[in-house]
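User: My collaborator and I are trying to settle a disagreement about how two of our proteins should look. Neither of us wants to argue from intuition anymore, so we agreed to look at predicted structures for both before our next call. Could you fold the first one, then the second, and keep them clearly separated?

Assistant: That sounds like a sensible way to settle it. I'll keep them separate. The first protein:
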Amino acid sequence: MILSHRRLLALLAILALGGCAAVEPIKAYEGPARPKAELAIVESAFERDWVSVADVQIAAVDGVGYPGPKYEARMLPGQHRVIVKGTSVIGSQKQEQFCAFEFDMARGCAYRPYPPSYPSPALLRGAESEWQLSLAMQVGVRCSGVSADIRVPADCAARAAALAQRRPSYQTEH
């Protein structure tokens, strides 16, 4: 029992170190950098407590994938499709899912997606590696000091490849 507790603490320490590193935000638009007040921002987070670790990273914006840990994406206001990768570790069990959502994002607003709980084994019916669900996902919205939670349509799956991506309208250099 002590050995598994030590493994859990070691895993938490490793994940915590990975979550603390400064990571450049994604610039998902053409042209020179713009002030945050002119952009729509999607932000995610790394969180941990004594029992679990939750890491939500931005995996793609408008069909362009971004490797490595990315916790903020800056884009021009308008319609955008974002894919987030949610990883949770509870005890020794690691679960990973990808959720895609799309809606019209406003200038000067920050959006924080909260991927749903991982599907239960009863729902998965033995096809855990290939599952896909459509549902309403909670997104926290903060604009000019006012905060609210909204629900947006989202597709979640065990693999990012299961989520159809549209082609980007332009190529960016990152």
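The second protein, kept apart from the first:
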Amino acid sequence: MQATVSNRPILVYGNQALRKRAKPVTVVSPELKRLAEDMLESMYESNGIGLAAPQVGESVRLIVVDVSGGEGKEKQPLVLFNPEILSSKGETVAEEGCLSVPGVWADVTRPEIITLRAMDRDGKPFELKGIDGILARCIQHEIDHLEGVLFVDKISSTDRLLNEAKLKKMARQAK
């Protein structure tokens, strides 16, 4: 099963591509730039704030993020190739959802502040320090996808039980 969006359908829970570790990007090619644009389009069409390449069936270490606030606000997309968290501190709990796990929301504990290294759209390395709030949470969530980890792997046993029927149904439909 796939969520319906642009020319890059988003894979749904149960699809094995979501469980594979993505491959590093060596060169930001025109094809990878196009993939990033396609992913942004799919993310915006789905009213998401982040999307990782494995969610559209591509095993590359690429995430796109935009937490600017949606309609009526100027878009502020971040395209990150080979994103890597260099350091983190603090701890915060907040509710998360995922375009690949539609209809499921649960609390997840994550580091509060992160420092990130990645490559931009032109393949130039850069660092972002002191990232916090929803942006830090979104980046961490999407990097998890690059490792084959879904947010539902990090939820409490109570939340897991509450969502078990939905997850089993999605997994069945994905086969």
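Some points you might bring to the call about the second protein. The helical segments are 30-45, 133-146, 157-174. The first strand starts at residue 2 and ends at 3.
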